[in-house]
Amino acid sequence: MSGQGLLLSMGALRCCWIGANLAISFMEAPVKFLAPLPSRRGLVDVGRHVFSALNKVEVVLATFDLLGWYFLIQRGLVPTASSGGSNASFFSKLQLGHLLRMTPGLVVYLCQSFAYLPVMRSIGTEYVEGRSISSAKTHGIYVLFEVIKMSTLVMGTASIAHALLA
To answer: Are 156 and 13 within 8 A, CB to CB?
Structure first.
């Protein structure tokens, strides 16, 4: 695959990731609670399963995203300190800073997946089982993580688009 094709693939992958997050985290999650018939416990139970499934999909998307950046760096298409920055003119706008724009999103994603999602899952389980919980702050932090992750995904995707159009 050419460097341009790799960038195009990474951009498409990131657009799918952004779309999945927008659809589930910012549309499906709040909208389902507007339904008058299902119980709140039932909706929370559905949410646990939906976010677990989304997380599994995000593992695959993040892995392919990291592989894409790895291949770009290995092919010398992203200048690093050791490469001296000698690249084809097509990639002259793609810098190591673009890779660093992805890093906060990856860190947030890892925190979400391995630290926060298990906490949210256990809180959801307690609620579904009828135990009292106080998760407003925990849920708010998770939403903040989602906003940060989405912002960094959008910025990274814009960097890819900028490199493709330059």
So the answer is: no
9: tokens are 């693939």
Look up the pTM and report it. Answer: 0.80
List the alpha helices (DSSP H) in 37-133: 40-74, 96-111, 117-128
Q: Is 94 left (phi over 0), alpha (psi -120 to 50) or beta?
A: beta
Is residue 80's pLDDT more than 60?
no
Say how far residue 148 (Cα) sits from the centre of its chain: 9
In this structure, which amino acid lies at residue 80?
A: T
By C-alpha distance, which of 64, 41, 56 is closest to 130?
A: 41
Measured CA distances, 2 to 33, 71, 85 (Å)? 46, 11, 19
